[in-house]
Fold this sequence. Notes:
20 helices; Growth Hormone, Chain: A; 421 residues; mainly alpha
Amino acid sequence: MPTSKNYVVSITIIGVLFFIFGFITWLNGTLIPFLKLSCDLTSDSQALLVTFAFYMAYFFLAIPSSFILGKTGYKRGMSLGLMIMAIGAFLFIPAARDRNFSLFLTGLFIQGMGLALLQTASNPYIAVIGPIESAAKRISIMGVCNKVAGALSPLILGAVVLKGAAEIESQIASATDPAQRILLLQELSHRVINPYLIMGLVLAVLAILIWISPLPEIESASSENGSDGSPSKTSVFEFPHLLLGVLCLFLYVGVEVMAGDVIGTYGKSLGMALDQTKNFTSYTLWSMVLGYAIGIIAIPKYLKQQTALKISAIVGIVFATLAFVTHGYMSILFIALLGLANSLMWPAIFPMAIDGLGKFTKIGSALLVMGIAGGAILPQVYGLLAKSMSTQTAFWICTLPCYLYILYYAMRGHLVGRKTA
């Protein structure tokens, strides 16, 4: 366990990292309508490839990340993750100049690669740096850093790249001269160059600063046994509560992305203007910030982690259903409020799933980070369903079963295979 001084320094550094990848992750809500317009995409399904490319990187890179961390340690692994993210940001510059959607997706995938490494390192780090009973509280503090950044990022990027969006959309739609239309699209696409150039430079500088920082190395566990006193395990797959937790986190990230990134597309399908829908992601994120604040106050003093997860799942079921049965801005309100339901899920699921893994904590963390691919899959399912039914029905079908499973994990799933079950 680090000294109290190192503890504060470590918490601060990890908080900065959570702010950074919160800022970058939640830019996707703005990039979806921006790239649909600037790259002249024909459907929402194509635009939702933004989330697919970004979150699938976690699936492919999570386990390699655990092996990389085994070689580099936490601190250098975080630094490497930031540098990879910088490369992804710089790739947006040629993508914007050529209006090349595939290159944009490649940049997003590379950023996801860097984030996979960062997540695999930082989440278990913040979980094990103190008592496991208060891990959800520490992750909630990190969540505030993450979601405040996430709430600000679409407002900042939207103000730059989607300024006067409705007018631009109208001009492009009404342009009869092909050359003039291409010029309008190019001018719009070029708006993203400066923000991503600055982002890449900031990430590169942070990578260097983390490399030379006093961030201490933390051992996940020195014992071969789990914290529940179980006999020594020979494989990470011998922990059913972890495997059920991976599925739980997969579904949780899916509904989080639905509420945060898909909300703008959802609003557009209800006839709302792009000037309005470009800010909807921020509403969801501020809702999540409120939830994290509740977690910081309540966990573990008033609520156990599993109780918080149980309440969150029930609230998610209620709000998803209300979004389905209401209409217009009221439906948007309940989707934004899903941020409140989702806020305490990651802080609860992650420590519950890695508890007792001992020497398998790093690989267990990697499996959980693979679950972030839920953010890639669920929006694609929604996009396919929305072609044959109303967007409200598609949204409800995609989210309700997820919240039901999360409720199961909170009540029983996290105990499966453990002596306390």
